[in-house]
Fold this sequence. Notes:
Blueprint: E1 10-14, E2 17-22, E3 25-30, E4 40-45, E5 50-57, E6 60-64, E7 67-71, E8 78-80, E9 86-90, E10 96-103, H1 108-118, H2 129-139, E11 142-143, H3 150-167
Antiparallel strand pairs: 1-2, 2-3, 3-10, 4-9, 4-11, 5-8, 5-10, 6-7, 6-9
Pfam families: Cupin_2
Domain Cupin type-2: 41-90
Protein name: Cupin type-2 domain-containing protein
Amino acid sequence: MTSTSDYPESISLGKGVTLTFEGHIRxxxxxxxxxxxxxxxxxxxxxxxxxxxxxxxGKMKVTLGKQVLICTPETGxxxxxxxxxxxxxxxxxxxxxxxxxxxxxxxxxxELFFRNLGAIPGGFAEGGLVQVMQIFYHGDGFPVFPxxxxxxxxxxxxxxxxxxxxxxxxxxxxxxxxxx
Length: 180
């Protein structure tokens, strides 16, 4: 188990993309230099929590169900209800800062989700399907399949992340959130 003194305040989500933990808020900074990665979060949903997003600088494409929003600081808070498929994407070459918090506010699975994604050797892009599904399993995340069937998506994460991953020797690095 990892000591809470080993918990970084920021983690890299890709080249030029940083996530910083600020209490119950997570801040994503997208630098957007020419050779930097875009910030892309594929379509997924949560069973146990809602999210509230806010763009502080730049703009971000947010897909919420079938609705596509181009969010800017003027947009204000964007409420993402639990069980609703959603995705995020920054614009190449456009710097962006976005915050995320969840409801309920004291939902430690979200911090653990991001910390464990950031702890994959070689980064998230290097993580295999089974390893990533283990993190989804512990972090209240479910991918959206081309035909959205929540029961099947949940079973997929539960089987791969909850059963297959431990049998193959995968372990999450962070089991408890950093106490603040």
